[in-house]
């Protein structure tokens, strides 16, 4: 659980309704955060590796599988055979390819907005 004094980073896209809902939830809960536009400032490979490690998820969970970048890039077919290194580089170079919102802290990593999961991790 994140300490109340710990500020987490929220990678979000301002035009995304789920991201706006997540930001509203964070504000209502009094969670300290720094908001970063995931499109203009995508997370680095190191941050993405940290998120995956802390969240304990498979690489595919970092991808926005319903997004245009995923479809246009042919990632459904490419992902199984793409190296992890190449996948991380692609994610770090295109914020719209990343599932959002994404929360990153010292001991927390959340991908997508599920209120119960966020409440457990950040409450």
TrEMBL record:
Coiled-coil residues: none
Cross-referenced SUPFAM superfamilies: Thioredoxin-like
Family matches, as Pfam families: ArsC
Similarity section: Belongs to the ArsC family.
NCBIfam families in alphabetical order: arsC_related
Name the UniProt record assigns to this protein: Arsenate reductase
Species for this entry: Plesiocystis pacifica SIR-1
Lineage start: Bacteria, Pseudomonadati, Myxococcota, Polyangia, Nannocystales
């Amino acid at each position: 659980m994140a300490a109340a004094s710990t500020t987490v980073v929220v990678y979000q896209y301002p035009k995304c309704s789920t991201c706006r809902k997540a930001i509203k939830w964070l504000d209502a809960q009094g969670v300290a955060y720094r908001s970063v536009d995931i499109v203009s400032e995508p997370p680095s490979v190191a941050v993405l590796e940290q998120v995956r490690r802390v969240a304990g998820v498979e690489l595919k969970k970092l991808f926005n599988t319903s997004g245009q970048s995923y479809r246009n890039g042919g990632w459904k077919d490419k992902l199984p055979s793409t190296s992890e290194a190449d996948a991380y580089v692609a994610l770090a170079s295109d914020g719209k390819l990343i599932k959002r919102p994404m929360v990153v802290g010292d001991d927390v990593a959340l991908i997508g907005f599920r209120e119960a999961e966020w409440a457990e991790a950040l409450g």
